Structure formats: C-alpha cells, structure tokens
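Researcher: Good morning. I'm working through a list of sequences from a screen, and I'd like to move beyond sequence-only analysis. For each chain I'm collecting a predicted structure so we can compare shapes side by side. This is the next one on the list. No need for commentary yet; just the structure.
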Amino acid sequence: MLSKQELIEEVLLLPIEDRTYIIDSLIQSMNPIDSDIDRKWLEVSKKRLNELKSGEVKGVPGDEVFSKIWKRFEK
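Model: Good morning. Structure tokens for this chain:
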C-alpha cells in the first residue's frame, strides 16, 4: 500500500483531466450531493438572473468586489 505522500506523488503524474476527476470525487465524498439543496440553489440562481436581466438589480464588477475584499483584510 502506498503512503499518503507516495499516493499524492503518483496522482500528480496523471493528466490534468484525471486529477480533476479525482479531486471532484474526493470533494463529493466529503460533501455528498443533496438534491434538495441543489434545487434550492437553482431557484435562487434563476431568481437572481431574472433580477439582473430585468434591471431590478445591477451587477457589481468583479474587480470592484475583490478590491473591497482586499481593503477589508488590510485593516
């Protein structure tokens, strides 16, 4: 049996697609899919998209968001 470090070294030799598949599988094993939560997130995302499309809300550019975050952590 491989040690944890040996396993990591072996995985790092794989193509990116295979590593991505392994990462996704590990994350799902720690955070199983909950279809009820997924359905609720889908409802929220559709509502927010409709609000953007209708002009009810305005989007904030990513650069502005990250700038505010960095300023908050500089304090």
